[in-house]
């Protein structure tokens, strides 16, 4: 373990100092773009104004014979669009550490658009050693190419070993931005018996005891991802990082996508991935607090201006802890309101 005072030192001479605190940003959705698809890439300037993060995906879902085209497409889209103008994050998902593409992914992207890149998403992270490797390599590349702002790292939690090491991954580097749940690879890695990309499974249920009259037994579907999301959120929040739900693969089932996103939001996640344009509105709806909840949270904060004591509101006890809960909601509402004039009016925050 490094001494705390060495934790924040740059890992290469000339690399920018790591952030002490994460930049405060609204990241309701990480929108995945296939950069080898010319038609979709041409729409990125227009798309960038409508989402919080645009991610150029180089890993899974890009065919092997398109890997180089995807990388070049990403560089082209990064050069063609002023993402910062709309406050939109620019991320890429690089290929896995054991793949033949990872070095060229990082060398070409950091050398050509390193100053525009906010976050590198690293797939299939197994333990802190993977983060240490990427951390060192990014520092060397930042120094070599004169990158001014540290490029952050976001890990995908999608292997059984990664889940077992989630706390050590979260605390591996000050470059860590956060983590996303990768339900497809994780299901395969764990030997789960599902072909779905995220969401529930109708066969994962609990059933009530039989009754003497032989009536039909009540049964309810359970959440396959509850344990992993909770574990990821705790590891992230304990280290000042952000947790995200990942992909929802059934584009035709908006209701199920919304339910999955909402569970993640309630559990502490900041956002989710959007793979298709029809998931963007769902993420906007879900990852912003409910106006009635915001109004009540404002009343809690106003009832205890210094955040201490105990008061009653509508028959419900409020104290220092509920003040903190209210603050989470009000702070998020303010962040959303800065970007969304309609919701700003609805929230009516001063
Ligand atoms: C498990 C994991 O690793 S998940 C992460 C990896 N997967 C991905 O990144 C997938 C990202 N999404 C995609 O590549 C595409 O959505 C696909 C290939 C899956 C489906 O694309 P299509 O068959 O074109 O879907 P569909 O016909 O419904 O698209 C409707 C329109 O939205 C466009 N579109 C589709 N996906 C996207 C996207 N991610 N971003 C922007 N536009 C998109 C299509 O080009 C199409 O435009 P058009 O109406 O002008 O023709
Ligand atoms: C998100 C991702 O990569 C997965 O589910 O495998
Ligand atoms: Mg995956």
UniProtKB/TrEMBL annotation:
GO molecular function: lyase activity; magnesium ion binding
Binding site for substrate: 93, 158
SUPFAM superfamilies reported in the protein's UniProt record: Phosphoenolpyruvate/pyruvate domain
Keyword Transmembrane helix: no
InterPro entries: Aldolase/citrate-lyase_domain, Citrate_lyase_beta/mcl1/mcl2, Pyrv/PenolPyrv_kinase-like_dom, Pyrv_kinase-like_dom_sf
Keywords from the UniProt entry: Lyase, Magnesium, Metal-binding
Keyword Membrane annotated: no
Domain of life from the UniProt record: Bacteria
Transmembrane intervals: none
Domain HpcH/HpaI aldolase/citrate lyase: 29-268
Required co-factors: Mg(2+)
A single BP term in Gene Ontology: oxaloacetate metabolic process
Positions of Mg(2+) binding: 158, 185
Pfam families linked to this entry: HpcH_HpaI
Family of this protein: Belongs to the HpcH/HpaI aldolase family.
PANTHER family in alphabetical order: CITRATE LYASE SUBUNIT BETA (PTHR32308:SF10), LYASE BETA SUBUNIT, PUTATIVE (AFU_ORTHOLOGUE AFUA_4G13030)-RELATED (PTHR32308)
UniProt protein name: Beta-methylmalyl-CoA/L-malyl-CoA lyase
